[in-house]
Amino acid sequence: MTGNKSFFKTLVMEEGGCVTFGDGSKKRVVGKGTISVPRLHSVSNAIYVNGLKANLVSISHLSNEGYSILFSKNDCSILKPDEQTLLKGMRSSDNCYCLEARIVLNNASMDEQIELWHERFSHMNFRDLGILGKFNCVCGLPKLRKKANCVCGPCQQGKQTKSMHKKGKYLSIKEPLELLHMDLMGPMQTESLGGKRYIFVCVDDFSRFIWTYFLREKSETFDKFKMLCNKIQNEMNSNIKSIKRIRSDHGREFENAVFESYCNSLGIFHEFSAPRTPQQNRVVERKNRVL
User: Fold this and answer.
1) CA 208 to CA 290: how far, in whole Å?
2) Which of 107, 173, 193, 283 is the most exposed place for a label (fewest CB within 10 A)?
3) Tens digits of per-residue pLDDT, 94-148?
4) How far apart are CA 284 and CA 291, in angstroms?
């Protein structure tokens, strides 16, 4: 008997009296049918009890179905007619035998297999998992087909981002270098071969051109920005104006006296996004996500 309606392969709703438990409580029987759950053969004449929170198995019912039941001091086994183990459970502290389906990977459904390997490979996408299995790239990995309408809860949570602000109706930027968006990514968990752990990203708002510099420490941000300004001054034609504005968050690598003094000497206006509002610096934040 069970209170989970989804276990039933076929179910006929009918009143069948009440079930009395050891503590004297009673639950109504509202249906009867055939149970079919993963890794367990179909069980006929199963009872659907409204509000039952535990799944209970009748020993006499299993015996009538042709199964053999073996009890020992520590565990219990249910055997099929060919002596293969169908279910096995351990004895609990309150002297109950809690049965669990025998976990054999080859007997699991295809959907369960691909979910299991998806988690084992640190939530790799299902398409690449199928490719690995198809070409035998990993020893022991079976051939997996793509699961239809597959949605992984942890993957969805990990990819969630803050909602963006509404787009403006007009473009305020009319030429290159009028506004540069800057941000610092890191520290990365793994250093590069050169010992770099941070990435300084700068994006031109008009052209979306990107400059990236790899840093060992945050303190190198100003030196890289100064070098970028010098390169831009040398590379740009005289017809194109120099940098007018830059925008960043309130990170200490951007908001300091040295940075402010250098911007003032070049006539660059330094804008800051509001605290805890990355949407205002959305251009470079989106580039960070791509990178």
Assistant:
1) 13
2) 193
3) 788 887 644 333 444 556 678 888 888 888 888 888 888 888 888 888 887 766 5
4) 10
| 98 within some domain | yes
Q: Output the CA–CA distances (angstroms, integers) from residue 64 to 49, 69, 97, in the order listed.
A: 21, 11, 20
In contact, 87 and 102? CB cutoff 8 Å: yes
Structure tokens at 13: 């709703």
44 and 19 within one domain:
yes
- Domain membership of residue 246 (yes or no) is yes
Domains in the chain, number:
3
CB-facing half-sphere around the CA of 93: CA atoms within 13 A: 0
